[in-house]
Amino acid sequence: MKEKELIKAALAARGNAYSRYSGFKVGAALLTKDGKIYSGCNVENGVFSASVCAERTAFYVAIAAGEREFQAIAIAADETDYCYPCGICRQVMAEFCGEDFLIYAVKNEADYKVLTLGELLPKAFHFTVKR
Ligand code: THU
Asked: Is the pTM above the cut of 0.90?
């Protein structure tokens, strides 16, 4: 797995964060099962509810490019703390990924934690229509 490359991509994507309201910059890098990396950053808006997290940006860019299968995501924000995905992003991950999907919470290239989606969102909701 391209762990180091994924972490570097998340740190680089953080540089593009548009966070003029919170000042909190976040970068994310999403790894497909066949080894491609899609990056995203948070993009804020003066209408705060229109803002989007780095993780969802990375997912939506990848989905729009036709990707459907993912193995891991790296998230880099404030270097003094690990940044774990918010509840909405966890739900978006659960739409496309299983419980073994890996989440790298990155402080820097040498300091990061690895968790699974199953740990961060146990018993996720999945929409099923019963007729
Ligand atoms: N944010 C992310 O991009 N990812 C996270 O995991 C947590 C929060 C963004 C949203 C908003 O632009 C800023 O950080 C403060 O919440």
From this structure: yes
Superfamily of domain 3-120: Cytidine Deaminase, domain 2 (3.40.140.10)
Question: What are the structure tokens assigned to 76, written together?
Answer: 């880099």
If one residue of 26, 61, 90, 106 were mutated to test the ligand 1 pocket, choosing by the most ligand atoms within 8 A of its CB, it would be 26
Q: Ligand 1 centre and the CA of 67: distance in Å?
A: 23
Tokens 């998340």 belong to residue: 10
The catalytic site residues sit at 55
Q: Break the chain into its structural domains and give their ranges.
A: 3-120
**pLDDT tens digit string along 66-96?**
999 999 999 999 888 999 999 999 999 999 9
Q: Which two tokens stand for residue 88?
A: 């909405």
Phi, psi torsion values for 75, nearest 5 degrees: -130, 125
Nearest CA to ligand 1 atom 3: 53
